[in-house]
Amino acid sequence: MAKQHPHIENPSVDALRELVAERPVAISELYLAFHELLRETLPDVAASVDTVDHAIGYGAHQYGYNGWGMAAVMPYAKWVSLTLMQGSLLDDPAGLLTGGAKMRHVKLASLDALRAQRGGIRDLIVAASLLHAAP
Predict the structure, then answer these.
(1) Where are the domains of the chain?
(2) How far apart are CA 61 and CA 40, in angstroms?
(3) d(C-alpha 98, C-alpha 109), whole Å
């Protein structure tokens, strides 16, 4: 069985900034901007960051892997990915999503790209949050 990575529940922006301090500045800023957009869009959503790979999971016990998660923000070497666990169920009129059978991703490499796609990304976040909302 794989060893579970330590997490920080509902991390502060300062804690996130510290976790990605060694990454390129453009990636760190984009990672924090994605987090900010998620928090602005869904202010009450639970968040948990993996202190090893720096993935931030959102939406405790809603759906997704092992019953946990609506979305995740993950920093890579050259981009940041917003993963929507049930992304294949979402309408995507802006054509932002890529990925597989269930999970879909929005992969961006710059703050300018995030600014340009902000409305479409926000719409996807809201739609994902409503997939399994209580009636």
Answers:
(1) 7-130
(2) 20
(3) 14
* Residues in contact with 45: Cβ distance below 8 Å, sequence separation at least 6, in sequence order: 38, 39, 58, 59, 70, 129
46-95: pLDDT as tens digits: 899 999 999 999 985 444 445 557 899 999 999 999 999 889 999 999 99
Unique residue bearing structure tokens 């990915």: 81
Phi then psi dihedrals of residue 15, to 5 deg: -65, -40
End-to-end CA distance of the chain: 37
Instruction: Dig out the tokens for 37 from the structure.
Output: 């957009």
d(CA 112, CA 126): 21
pTM for the full predicted model:
0.89
pLDDT in tens, 97-126: 999 888 999 999 999 999 999 999 999 999
